[in-house]
Amino acid sequence: MNIAETASQAIEQLDQNHWANTPVEKRLNLLFQVRENIKRYANELAESDAKMKNNLINETLYNDEESQMNTVVPMASAISACIELYQSIQNGKMMSGISVNKVDDEYYDVKVFPQQAKDKIMYADRQDYIRIKGEPKQVNPMTKPAQTIAVLGAGNYSSALEIIKAVFLENAVVIHKPHHINAETDKIWAKIFQPLNSERVVSFVQSDQGQTLTQDKRINRIFFTGGAATAKAIMASTDTTLISECGGNNPCLIVPGEKPWTQKELEHQALQIVSISKM
Questions:
Q1: How many CB atoms lie within 10 A of CB 91?
Q2: pLDDT of residue 277
Q3: Which of 10, 20, 119, 174 could be cross-linked to 114 through a Cys-Cys bond (beta carbons 3.0 to 4.6 Å apart)?
Q4: Are 104 and 132 in contact (CB under 8 A)?
Q5: Sheet holding 99-102, edge to edge
Q6: How many whole angstroms from its chain centre is CA 137?
Q7: Chain mean pLDDT for the chain
């Protein structure tokens, strides 16, 4: 798969209306193809990711195995989750929350994990909830309006998770522009997403095309990971909706559940968070 030289070329490779009319069976087939490509290029992707990070800090700290866990595994998990979602759509009943509890007049807690027996085996007594403002509503991603999303990749992480989310959860076609230090890794992502490129769903563009891409009127939304100053510059240069993750800070919020946390529970969760941040 060739990476487009210009933003305009990358946009012209896509057809959002074709994707919007793509049936669930075809989407599932594409997900399976991408998952097979993840297996095929996993080692090459991990090697490139580790090399990028080591070059960034100018020492050999990261290895291929760690990059497998941090880059390959999250993508494989996201693809598997999308497969489960689209299989449920194919079967006529979308996946749904396990339970919904009203917290107060504004907020609801939706239990979403564990969904299957394998989840309980792998994750023991772990339970996941999503706190939602307003009454929860379930939306079939295939009913969302067709759109074109520009994804501007992070500099410290060779991830393409936003591609999967935009395509299969937002019903969008996607142009991916990498940070310049991830340009080599993006060539491997381009090979992994070749099935979606062939269907005019995903395209890749050179790392120097960010400004031109974000100012193109054919873009409906922009997903950006990076510094706050760059995000502000993007907002100042276009009216296109920007969804950004800035600053490299990853807050972890401990919210009340059905009953107040005890001091012992708070101390335990604080220890877990600090421990994970050191990994």
A1: 10
A2: 56
A3: 119
A4: no
A5: 99-102, 107-113, 128-133
A6: 21
A7: 89
3-state SS track over 180-205: HHHHHHHHHHHHHCHHHHHCCCEEEE
Structure tokens at 187: 């060539």
Q: Is 132 strand, coil or helix?
A: strand
Q: What is the pLDDT of residues 215-248, one digit of tens each?
A: 999 999 999 988 888 899 999 999 999 998 886 5
User: 172-177 and 99-102 as β-strands: parallel, antiparallel, unpaired?
Assistant: unpaired
Rounded distance between C-alpha atoms, residue 226 and residue 246, angstroms: 5
243 token code pair: 């969804």
SS (H, E, C) 207-253: HHHHHHHHCCCCCCEEEEEECHHHHHHHHHHCCCEEEEEECCCCCCC
Residue 101 CA to its chain's centroid (Å): 27
Q: Could you tell me the CA-to-CA distances from 124 to 40, 116, 118, 209 in Å, in that order?
A: 31, 12, 10, 46
CB 46 within 8 A of CB 188: no
Predicted pLDDT at 15: 97
Q: Residue ranges of the chain with pLDDT lower than 70?
A: 1, 247-251, 256-258, 276-279
Name the pTM for this structure: 0.85
Q: Using the 8-state DSSP alphabet, how is residue 98 labeled?
A: S
| Strand bridging mode 128-133 / 107-113 | antiparallel
Contact by Cβ (8 Å): 185, 210 = no
